Amino acid sequence: MSRALSKTIPFSSLPLIPAACVSPGRPTASIRQAWDGAPKRHSSHSPLSSSQTTRKKVTIPTLQAMHKRNDPITMITAHDFPSAHVADQAGMDMVLVGDSLAMVALGMDDTSEVLLEEMILHCRSVARGAKAAFIVGDLPMGSYEISPEQALGSAIKMVKEGRVHAIKLEGGAEMVPAISKITTAGIPVLAHIGLTPQRQNALGGFRVQGKSTSGALRLLADAVAVQEAGAFAVVLEAVPAEVATLVTKKLRIPTIGIGAGNGCSGQVLVQVDMSGNFPPGRFLPKFVKKYGDVWSEAKRAIEQYRVEVKDGSYPAPEHTYPMPKEAYTEFERVVEGQ
Ligand code: KIV
Is 258 near ligand 1, meaning CB less than 6 Å away? Predict the structure, then answer.
C-alpha cells in the first residue's frame, strides 16, 4: 500500500480475503486432479516453454559415432541460460562455455582475467539451459598449468559445481601430463591447439599458426600428443585449411575447427560473433560468418519500447489485467470516500 493510500483508508475497512483462498491445508482431490492435468507453467520470465521438444542427449559415444560416419560435429559457445537454451533448441551437438565469455559476457579485455569461479557460475547457468547438447567448460588461464594435480582439481570443480560434461584446455604436447591425469579420473578433455588465445602474449598476438612446414609439423605432433594422452577431440584454431585437413586425416579423434577450413570433423564459433550480437563496426576475425543481426534487432525493439512508453501507447489495454466492474466501483467508492 502506498503511503498516500494508507493515510486515507484505515486498513480495517478493506474487504477481507476469504479464508478459503489462503488456507494452507492439503488440496482436495478435485483440485489435485486439476493441478496434475494442467500444463506445466514456467515463470513469465523463463525462456522455457512446455511445447519445446527435447532431443536425445549427446554423449561421447554419440560424437564418436558421428565422427565415424563423417557427420560434421556442430559446436557453438554459450555463456548463460538463454544463449545455451537457444543453441540447444537449434540442434547444436556441443555447447562450449568458452573463456571468450570474459570479453563477450563480462566486458574484460582478454581471457586472462576471468577466474575459475566465474567460469563455474556461467557453466551452471548454461547447464540449466542445454538439456541435450554435450557441454564443455573451458579451464581458464591459471587454473591448470601449474601441475597435473591442479588441472585435475579444477576439472573436478568444473564438473561438480559447473555441471559440465567435459573440460577444454589450451596447449599441446606440454599438456600431456595434465590431460592424462584428468582423463584417467574419468573427465573427458577437449584439447585446443593452434592459436591458443590464453597465450596471446607469448604468440605475439592473434596469429595464424602452422603456416610454415616446421609450424605445421609441430601442430601435427601436438595433435597426436593430445590424442595419445586421452583427449576425446581437439580444437584447431586459426591454422591453414590444408594443414587442418591433413592433421584431421592423421588422427583417430575428431578435430573441431575454428578458422581452420572445412576439412575438420566439426566446427565451433562464438555465438555472439556468428549471431551478430554486437554493435556495427566491431572487428571480426576473417573466419567468422555473421548469420544474423541480433544486436540491431534488439536495439530496434528497445528503441520502439522507449518510444511507446514515452507516447503512452504501451501498455495498451491488451497488456493489462481485467477486474470485475463492480469490484472496481466499490474500490473507487472506498478510496474516494463516496
Ligand atoms: O573461448 C572460446 O570461445 C574458445 C573457442 C573460440 C574455441 O575457446
Answer: yes
Q: Which residues are catalytic?
A: 237
Q: Which three cell numbers stand for residue 155?
A: 576439472
Nearest CA residue ID for atom 5, ligand 1: 98
- Ligand 1 contacts CB of residue 268 (under 6 A): yes
| Nearest alpha carbon to residue 267 among 243, 244, 294 | 244
pLDDT tens-digit profile of 235-284?
A: 999 999 999 999 999 999 999 999 999 999 999 999 999 999 999 998 89
Q: Does residue 222 have its Cβ closer than 6 Å to ligand 1?
A: no
pLDDT of residue 311: 98
Rounded average pLDDT over 14-30: 39
The type of residue at 319 is H
Q: Whose CA is nearest to atom 1 of ligand 1?
A: 98
Count how many residues are written for the chain. 338
Of ligand 1's listed atoms, the one at least distance from the Cα of 268 is 7
Give the three-state DSSP class for 336.
Answer: helix
Atom of ligand 1 at shortest distance to CA of 96? 3
Which stretches does DSSP call E strand in the chain?
73-77, 94-97, 134-138, 166-170, 189-194, 233-237, 255-258, 266-269
170 CB within 6 A, ligand 1 = no
Give residues with Cβ within 8 angstroms of 191, minimum separation 6. Answer: 168, 169, 171, 172, 175, 179, 223, 226, 229, 231, 233, 234, 235
**Alpha-carbon distance 153 to 178, whole Å?**
11
Going from the Cα of 284 to the center of ligand 1, the distance in angstroms, rounded, reads 14
Q: What are the structural domains, with CATH classification, of the chain?
A: 60-274 (3.20.20.60)
DSSP strand pairing (73-77 vs 233-237):
unpaired
Instruction: Check if 194 has its Cβ closer than 6 Å to any atom of ligand 1.
Output: no
Report DSSP letters for 4-26, one per residue. HHHHHS-GGGSPPPPHHHH--SP
